[in-house]
Amino acid sequence: MKSNEKFTGKAEVYAKYRPSYSHEYIEYLISQACLNEDSIIADIGSGTGILSNQLLERGYTVIGVEPNDDMRTIAEQTLKTDSRFISIKGTAENTTLNDNSIDQVTVAQAFHWFYMEPFRLECQRILKQDGRVALVWNSRDGSSDINKESAEVCQKYCPNFKGFSGGMEETPIAFQQFFKDGKYELKLFRNDLQFNLNGFLGRYLSASYSPKKTHEEYHPFITALSNLFEKYSNHGQIVIPNITRSYLGKV
How far is CA 72 from CA 35, 165, 169, in A? Predict the structure, then answer.
């Protein structure tokens, strides 16, 4: 399956249960990018528009570039009332955007799906002088017991599981290769998440690696996650230690 097809059929659960990014991260991004009311942000791999929406709320024009039809349709339906949102069917490696037309590129939860070198060249083409690229993930805090045990569940029941966020947070090599001269700023922002059982299950079912209902692993996967929820929840709620992880630099 192509990477841009991995979320087909998961757009609704993704939009419903995926978290937004921490307020502190949005403030940081805006301050570091020196954006103004005329700035144009290209949100590459924009999915259902979670980060795009947060940037639109701050008054910027956002071009969402998303190859998956299901994900892009959700974003268009959700954000259609904002004239500053422009939706484009394109890929990270071929955005179809004009040369030197973008003030800031953002990539939320998607960089690990891209072909890095073609994407880097595409960013160089579309960005204005001094424009930068922001890569961001909502990442589970791997030091917590609940996240360690949920990773074991995913490893057991999800054949395509390679680690949360595609395992991108485990090594700096990719970021050193992607950013100009290997230089970038890494910032971490606390963004713990609270769920009831449906939200907890939905968060995992929105992942590309999670089994669909037709797969034999689906019901054992749900049972194992439900048992985890029972173990760690309190009065029907569970807190998942989570970090908004940001990488910002020139390319």
Answer: 25, 20, 26
